[in-house]
Prior knowledge:
Elements (H helix, E strand, L loop, with lengths): L1 H46 L17 H31 L3 H8 L4 H11 L6 H13 L4 H13 L2 H10 L2 H22 L11 H8 L5 H34 L11 H13 L7 H10 L4 H13 L2 H6 L6 H25 L1
Amino acid sequence: xxxxxxxxxxxxxxxxxxxxxxxxxxxxxxxxxxxxxxxxxxxxxxxxxxxxxxxxxxxxxxxxxxxxxxxxxxxxxxxxxxxxxxxxxxxxxxxxxxxxxxxxxxxxxxxxxxxxxxxxxxxxxxxxxxxxxxxxxxxxxxxxxxxxxxxxxxxxxxxxxxxxxxxxxxxxxxxxxxxxxxxxxxxxxxxxxxxxxxxxxxxxxxxxxxxxxxxxxxxxxxxxxxxxxxxxxxxxxxxxxxxxxxxxxxxxxxxxxxxxxxxxxxxxxxxxxxxxxxxxxxxxxxxxxxxxxxxxxxxxxxxxxxxxxxxxxxxxxxxxxxxxxxxxxxxxxxxxxxxxxxxxxxxxx
Length: 349
C-alpha cells in the first residue's frame, strides 16, 4: 500500500516538475525571444532592415584591445538575457525533466531522437552560444549525441524568426538556401555525428534510468547543476568573445574587387564565419553591410550558413559534453556546407 502511495506521489512530483520546466521555458522565451522578434519582424517588413551590423565599427577602425572590449560589450548587451535563459534552462533540464522520458525520446541514436530534438529546437530561436548550455544539460541527462547536436544546431540555423527577417531584408533566395542547408545540418549532420561517438557496451534502459535518478532534494540538485554550469560556461564564454572581438579585423578583411567573389574569399569567409560569434540574426545586417561594401554573393552566402551555426565560444562551452571527433566532424561539416552555399550563391545570386 505504501509502495503504491509512494509511486503515485512520485508521478505527481514528476508531473509538476515537468510543468514547471515548460512554464519557465514559455515565460522566458516569450520575454527574451518571441515578443521582441514579433516587433522586429514588423520592422524588417517596413524598413527592410533589422539594425546596424555588429561589425560596423571595423570599416574605419583598426585593431586595438579597447576595440576588442568594445565588441564584447556590444555583443553581451545583445545576448545577456538569452544567455541567462540558456544557462537557466540548461540547469533546469537536469533536475526537472524526468530521466525516463528524456532517455526514451532523446536517448537513442536513431533518426527519431535526432528529429525530435531538432523539432524541439525550432521555438527556441537562440544563438549557438545561448543554446549550448541546454545541449550540455541534455548530454548530462544522457541524451544521445545526435539529439543534443540537433537541438544545439537547430536553434540558430532553422530559427523561423531569422528566416522571416532574412526574406524581408535580403531575399527569398537567401532564405531558401539557409533553410535547406539548415535542415541538412540539424537533421543530417547531427544524425551522422552519432557514428563518431565512442562505442559503449549495451545497457538496459531501465537500469540507465535508475542510475540517472538523483535522490537529493530539488534545490540541492538545482544549485549544484547551476553552479557547475556557471563555473564552466561563463569564463570560457567571456574570454573567447574577447579574443574573437580582437581577431575580427583579420577574420573579415576588406577585399579587392577581383577577390570579392572568388573561391579563395568563399573559403576564407566560410572558416571565419564558423569561428566567429554573433547574436541571433546578426548575420543578416553583417551580410547586408558587407555586400554594400562590395563583397560578392559567394562569400556572403558562405557567411549565411557558417556565422550562425556554431562558433569558437559555443564549441568551448560544449567541449566536455561531446567527443572531440564529433565536434571536429561538425566544424568541418559547417565549413564544407558553407563553401557549397558560397558556390551556389556565386552562381545563382
